[in-house]
Amino acid sequence: MIRLQAVILAAGEGSRLRPLTRSKPKAMLPVANRPIIEYVIDALLENAIRDIVVVVGYRKEDAIRHLNRLDAPIQIVVQERQLGTADALRAAEPEITGDFLVLPGDNYVNAESIARIKRERNAMLVAEHPNPSNFGVVVIRKGLVREIIEKPEDAPTFTVATGVYSFTRDVFSCLQTNEIPDTLSAMIASGQRIHAIPADDWQDAIYPWDLLKLNSRMLRSITPEIAGMVDASVIRRGNVRIGAGTTIGPNTVIYGPVTIGSNCNIGPNCVIMPDTSIGDRVVLEPFTYVSDSLIMNDVTVGSHSRIVAAVFGQGCILADHTTTYPSASFIEVCGRIQREEFGAILGEGVRAAPFTTFKNCIIGNGVTVEGGKTVVGLIEDGTRVM
């Protein structure tokens, strides 16, 4: 009996997630302190699928280093140029011997969803989404895919393609273009049946602010653990995970779900509210409040700061009295205008002087903000805000 294989596509940049994908592919962005691709691998392993091929490309060194450290049987192949999902699948063809699944490495999909589709041949996992125009919209009749419409302005349904497929090896003879949805459309036109399988739980992060929802979702499943030094006066409620070498200072309050990485220095007198993940080697200085935020490695947040609904890229250094102020406004990303409510998205290495307020803004990598400024909108990489 030939075992079911899986191909995880992790070669893309995720351009709509800039500036956070400057130095790493989207699949390697940390959510609840784990790269997104790890959740995909876990879901496969829960289904006893252990023959896993991962296609890497953009910033491949970062992905290869991490994947080689995992305790999982992973074969890595390289897509030399990022020409599309079908082209990435072609790179994996020499490793495929029979029926297989295809999964995006930058989406969350749970084990139950994989269990549903792995029983089918030539199938697509679909899900309902409130913003279908960001995806391939799927028209279904009697359980079969009839049409796939890529990112339509006016979507005829709320059903979207998740990027998870079940194929036989025959699909490689159908890969005529660089995108898998085009291949599926050609297969349907030739009379082949593509089954539509509803997902149990699936989530994608299209834009940087979507990482906050994904972070909240993944924090639901963290295992409580206290491996650092926590002062006796610290108040903890709910699921809280604290890594080795981390110090939590006196009178700090933590309401889970919260995960804090290793070798951090938190407090004293800080408040960390639910749906917050804090990476490794992060410093939160005294009297700082953090809620509903994703803070990556090596970030310093000065004292008396208030961080709400924010994503901070690696290596940001923010002085005292920094504020992120959630509000709703229109932001243009990759030519599409979005109206979204969040506090701030900061790329890597952002520097901000005391009394800086970030209001519903996306700040590029290496931006420097001088003191007392309120920053709004989109700020390009390397800008100096004076």
Please explain how this structure is put together.
The chain is 15% helix and 38% strand. The protein is mainly beta. It has 2 domains: 5-206, Alpha-Beta Complex (Spore Coat Polysaccharide Biosynthesis Protein SpsA, Chain A); 219-385, UDP N-Acetylglucosamine Acyltransferase, domain 1 (3 Solenoid). The strands form 8 sheets. Strands 14, 17, 20, 23, 26, 29, 31, 34, 36 and 38 form a 10-stranded parallel β-sheet that branches. The protein has a 9-stranded parallel β-sheet with strand order 15-18-21-24-27-30-35-37-39, with no helix packed on it. Strand 2 and strand 3 (34-35) form a beta hairpin. The longest helix has 11 residues, at 36-46. The model has no long low-confidence stretch (mean pLDDT 90).
**CATH-defined fold name of the largest domain:** Spore Coat Polysaccharide Biosynthesis Protein SpsA, Chain A
**Quick one: overall form?**
globular
Q: Oligomeric form of this entry?
A: single chain
- What is the name of the CATH superfamily of the largest domain? Spore Coat Polysaccharide Biosynthesis Protein SpsA, Chain A
Could you report the average pLDDT, rounded to the nearest whole number? 90
Rg value: 22 Å
Low-confidence stretches: none
- Report the total helices: 6
Relative helix content: 10-25%
Q: Helix/strand-derived class?
A: mainly beta
Tell me what the CATH architecture of the largest domain is. Answer: Alpha-Beta Complex
Euclidean distance between termini CA atoms: 66 Å
How many separate domains make up the residues? 2
- Relative strand content: 35-45%
**What is the CATH class of the largest domain?**
Alpha Beta
